[in-house]
Specification:
heterodimer; A: about 110 residues; mainly beta; five-stranded antiparallel beta sheet; 11 strands; about 0% helix; B: about 120 residues; seven-stranded mixed beta sheet; four-stranded antiparallel beta sheet; about 50% strand; globular
Chain lengths: ~110, ~120
């Protein structure tokens, strides 16, 4: 089983749609969790840290479920500029474990 | 957020030459930096963890004599690809860890290496 698993997609959605990504992780002792966004041929950029209580930043909502070992990212009212690959990242004792990424394309 | 720079952003070299890539944390000190490579449409693959003032820790399968890492100061780590070959062509990205409750990592802009 992979340490961090994501649905690779691609997710193709119209502008304004709501889209959700899930990610599961294998190490129950993992300490912190993140969503990064990576545009084509660019470096990953931190989108959100995922807090135990869940957190929201504008149109983006992240949730953590430790019992089931998954995290999620919800994007509301999607924009064309949201098109990117979203990487789920889990921190195991300062070792960052990356999911393979979920490709999102938002279409007009 | 913390800023990490990387230089050069792009390099094309002949087979057999060595290429040095620099990674700098611009507005914070990073005792630990990380080097990744990424192939097209693939996720990041950790190559090594670079610790200031000590030897780097390499991931399994990464040749330490091929990929030389030096972390001479709290703001600079370098990766040297020695005797580069076409199969070394890739996107190399560094990151620096921020000491916080969540230990986020911030990435440099990456270096695209093409070996002819």
């Amino acid at each position: 089983r992979k340490e961090v698993e994501q649905d690779p997609g691609p997710f193709n959605v119209p502008e304004g749609a709501t889209v959700a990504f899930n990610c599961t992780y294998s190490n129950s002792a993992s300490q912190s969790f993140f969503w990064y966004r990576q545009d084509c041929r660019k470096e990953p950029k931190l989108l959100m840290s995922v807090y135990s209580s869940g957190n929201e930043d504008g149109r983006f909502t992240a949730q953590l479920n430790r019992a089931s070992q998954y995290i999620s990212l919800l994007i509301r009212d999607s924009k064309l500029s949201d098109s990117a690959t979203y990487l789920c990242v889990v921190n195991d004792n300062n070792d960052m474990r990356f999911g393979a990424g979920t490709r999102l394309t938002v279409k007009p | 957020g913390a800023v990490v720079s990387q230089h050069p952003s792009r390099v094309i070299c002949k087979s057999g030459t060595s290429v040095k890539i620099e990674c700098r944390s611009l507005d914070f000190q990073a005792t630990t930096m990380f080097w990744y490579r990424q192939f097209p449409k693939k996720s990041l693959m950790l190559m090594a963890t670079s610790n200031e003032g000590s030897k780097a820790t390499y991931e399994q399968g990464v040749e330490k004599d091929k990929f030389l890492i030096n972390h001479a100061s709290l703001t600079l780590s370098t990766l040297t690809v020695t005797s580069a070959h076409p199969e070394d062509s890739s996107f190399y990205i560094c990151s620096a860890g921020v000491s916080s409750a969540y230990n986020e990592q911030f990435f440099g802009p990456g270096t695209r290496l093409t070996v002819l």
